[in-house]
Amino acid sequence: MKVRINADDYGLTKGITDGIIRAHQNGVVTSTTMMMNGKAVDYAVEQAKLNPSLKVGIHLVLTWGKPVSEEVNKLTNSDGLFRFTSIFDPSDPPNLDHLEKEWTAQIEAFLRTGLPLSHIDSHHHVHGWPPVQALIAKLAKIYQVPVRVVGTLKNQPDITMTDILWDGFYGEGVSGRLFDELQTLDVDSVEVMTHPAIVDEELESMTSYAYPRKRELDLLCSMRVPSWVELF
Fold first, then answer.
1. Which UniProt keywords apply (predicted)?
2. What is the mean pLDDT of residues 24-50?
3. For labelling, which of 63, 81, 117, 198 has a CA lying 20 to 30 Å from the CA of 73?
4. CA nearest to 155, candidates 130, 174, 175
């Protein structure tokens, strides 16, 4: 089975970035996805260039922080922050013209770092929202990279990176039995979503999901890869 173990939120904070680097250097994490509006993007780029074996993709953002482009006010509130939450509201879909401008700007900002773009996913899985299916497929084809599979993209194997996404390594589902659980799947390829981090005050102030990231980091650095697994 081909297994991609991806760490989300790269570049959001220094602690997250350092945790992901450690989980790659000393553990089983093979790739990460960077938030181009994060607080530690420059540092994350620097660390990625020092660790070229870590594949880096983009974590497209619509639900946290500020846009990287200007004049996308249909996506923001009066404070200039993204106005959307992690829960899709069918009565208030994002303006697709502004979203295409912003997500293109995020990808172009990534490319200007000089890092090769591995793949596309998104913060809170917003790329799986029904109204943006055509847009995410368009971006995948323009930039010629695969996309994280989510429920609404299962029927688009031409653009998705794996057969399924394993999102069970989160919260109460975080355990050292990850590979045992994956072995029960009847698929050829799977992406495992993870969130390792070194917890600091900055991270604590930003999210309620802080200390579980330390447990993820410890486990990801202690796992043995079975012979039937091909990490990629």
1. Carbohydrate metabolism, Hydrolase, Magnesium, Metal-binding
2. 98
3. 117
4. 130
